Amino acid sequence: MTSYDSLLTELRSIALLESCGHVLGWDEQTYMPPGGAEHRANQLSLLAGMVHERATSPQLGDLLASAEQNEKSDDPDSPTAANLREARRKYDRSTKLPRRLVEELSRVCTLSQQAWVQARKDSKFADFLPWLEQVVALRREEADVVGYGDGVPYDALLDEYEPGMTAAEVTTLFAGLRDELVPLIAEIVDCGRQPDISILQRSYPVDKQRDFGTAAATAIGFDFHKGRLDEAAHPFCSGFGPGDTRLTTRYDEHHFPGAFFGTLHEAGHGIYEQGLNPAEFGTPMGTYTSLGIHESQSRLWENFVGRSRAFWNHYYSAAQQTFSTALTDVSEETFLWCVNDVRPTFIRVEADEATYNLHILLRFELEQPLVSGDLKPADVPAAWNEKFTQYFGITPPTDAMGCLQDIHWSGGGIGYFPTYSLGNMYAAQFFEAARRDLGDLDEQFAAGDFAPLKTWLNQNIHQRGQQYRANRLVEVVTGEQLDYRPLVQHLRAKFSELYGL
Question: What is d(CA 482, CA 173) in angstroms, rounded to the nearest whole number?
Answer without folding.
Answer: 9
